[in-house]
Write a structure and sequence with these properties.
Elements: H1 8-13, H2 21-32, E1 59-63, E2 71-72, H3 75-81, E3 84-85, E4 90-96, E5 99-108, E6 111-114, H4 117-123, E7 131-139, E8 142-149
Parallel strand pairs: 3-8, 4-8
Antiparallel strand pairs: 1-7, 2-6, 4-5, 5-6, 7-8
Keywords: DNA-binding, Nucleus, Transcription, Transcription regulation
GO molecular function: DNA binding
Domain TF-B3: 60-152
């Protein structure tokens, strides 16, 4: 009978069994989360703060995946910066190097996202793996502008 406490079976098969849950969670978070709130696997932009118009603005690094329908703001970024968003379908702006694009804020399951992202990705010929620094600007405490910076250009 295998008790799972200290026998050879548990040590070989379950190396994390001896680790406390708090240590495991902190290792997991430090491995996958960067200071911007983006997953480290996605955050391959060196020093994204250098691209910001205002260094005190909240930001995150978005690496394009297969789905480009909307631009999601993760719960981690929202909580880290204490972000607030307008109601569902409230207007917002994407500020790009040479233009402004109007879009809407969407709220799904408590998670904020912005439509119009697919249009920007196609127009700027962004492909899977490309990184974009998304700088969030607030008006009256509510995020109304996403300023996009393209470090790969």
């Amino acid at each position: 009978m295998r008790s799972g406490t200290g026998d050879a079976f548990s040590r070989r098969r379950w190396p994390l069994a001896t680790m406390s849950s708090a240590v495991f969670i902190s290792l997991l978070i430090s491995r996958f989360i960067s200071p911007s709130g983006a997953r480290q696997a996605d955050a391959h932009v060196n020093n994204p703060e250098q691209y910001l118009s205002n260094p005190s603005n909240p930001f995150f690094v978005k690496t394009l995946g297969k789905k480009i329908v909307v631009l999601y703001v993760s719960h981690l970024v929202t909580e880290k910066y204490g972000l607030q968003f307008g109601p569902h379908n409230s207007p917002m702006l994407y500020l790009l190097p040479n233009e402004k694009i109007e879009a809407n804020t969407k709220i799904y399951g408590g998670c904020a996202c912005f439509n119009g992202w697919a249009v920007i990705c196609r127009k700027y010929k962004l492909k899977q793996g490309d990184a974009v620094v998304c700088e969030l600007e607030r008006s009256g405490g509510v995020v109304t502008v996403v300023r996009l910076h393209f470090p790969n250009e």
